[in-house]
Request: fold
Amino acid sequence: MNEYRTHTCGQLRASDIGQQVKLAGWIHRKRNLGNLCFVDLRDHYGITQCVFDSSSDLFEQIENIRVESVVGFEGEVVARESVNKNMPTGDIEIKVSKVTIYSEADVLPVQVFGECNEPEELRLKYRFLDLRREKIHNNILLRCKVIAEMRRLMTEQGFNEYQTPILTASSPEGARDFLVPSRLNPGKFYALPQSPQQFKQLLMVSGFDRYFQISPCFRDEDPRADRSPGEFYQLDMEMSFATQEDVFRVIEKTMGTIFNEFANGKKVDQAPFIHIPFKEAMLKYGSDKPDLRNPLVIADATSFFNNSGFGVYDTKAANGEQIRAIKAPGAGNKPRSFFDKFDGYAKEQGMGGMAYIAFSDNGPKGIAKFFTEEKIAELKQMFDAGEDDAVFFMGGAPKVINKFAGVVRNQIGEALDLFDKNAFKICWIVDFPFYEENEETGAVEFSHNPFSMPQGGLDALNNKNPLDILAYQFDLVCNGVELASGAVRNHVPEIMYRAFEIAGYDRSVVDNKFGGMISAFKFGAPPHAGCAPGVDRTVMLLLDEPIIRDVILFPLNGKAQDLLMQAPNTVTEQQLKDLHIEIKL
Reply:
């Protein structure tokens, strides 16, 4: 028998009444009623109510023990007078006959029981206490279950889990590297991997066929609500002799099962998930991460403003700007202030304001006065506007109007409460542009992943405008969050050299930065493709957590600091000397 407990704090039921038991855990809370003191004892598995009578010698002892102290209780399982149906152990309680104190707690800097009102910085400094809270504790447990299910599903589909190196070489993959100085090689540095990209491709060249890994990745990026600074985990996968559609089938099986299993009653889009080309996504939703819970769709209204009668937008269209329209269903009778709010937002963003037409009970409002009856009829038909609808218009330069319209689309959807908040809407974004133009320098850069295969191969690279070339690249998006990014890989050396040449890297750079992989491709590389769904973001979505830090055991704060372990921190002069480093701030 275990020295500390016969049962866990989530195990006992009415069928155990009459047993003598031993429990061990943390004092979750105490309620002193004068003649009785109730103590909730908590461990990893649950909570059991324990009771002390004022006539007992233990009553004064338990009064003086602080909450969150670690104790052992022995006693008899008895029926609980006031049954608590909200607790699995709510039918019973323990009449305590012996108390053992294993560890006494100091006054708590953050509370474990009840609402969490402490600032995040304090919670992260005392993360070990924060993790005792039921909500965060359960978040981490769900994360464990999701990862275990990912492993099961990938193994079931013929994939093997391999571990790739953590210390590797720096490479231009789009984000800043975390660098590690080498003691044995003065002046040289390792980099922590932004992803196992090159290694998993090398595994394909080595003939392993199907790889996956629950992989840690490291990027020196600024934090966001859905992106943790420093490190994150992903379900990394790669497969040989595979097309884009083959990857889709594997990920749809894995992620589709994950969402169906852990959706907690929400509706889930079923595989096969819809495919939306990048260009279409930017036009219809103003984003390559569209939130399809919002039914609103953006329309191109540029052709409508061709001598329409509304001079402001007619002039914009004539000068090469583009006009976007968003139908707001049921907004026709909204007050003027509803429309002014969006107009004011557009002006704040430097977009010159927003126009609208509202089909109200009192006739069309907004800019309707500038149009003939025929033009009004054309507008209603073009945008499928009914008698109680409104249509917003916004105009701007081609490079900015889509993203702005995408933001407005979501704002209108929120204002009209159109989002289906009880659903997971999942899609593939496909046909990404292979290159993009740097807005500041005008240089041609990789838009997504430099290791991807361009559609059309070498012929496209040699004969097409780089900005017109599409790639076999794709993203998995759920509720406006990018869950996964993947591609069919470029496994042909000459195509890779040419692709990097267009982006400004000559052959020597490719040989230096990707020497291992480019060399491997020269000795027989199979066509291969892969993808990498994010573990942290998946769990964040399933739990509907707005902040990604609440699904990570020991996260960094917004300044990329670990307040618990006090990292990053200074090191000794001897450590710097060993690494041949001198700091000059």
Q: What stands out?
A: The radius of gyration is 30 Å. The chain has a mean pLDDT of 94.
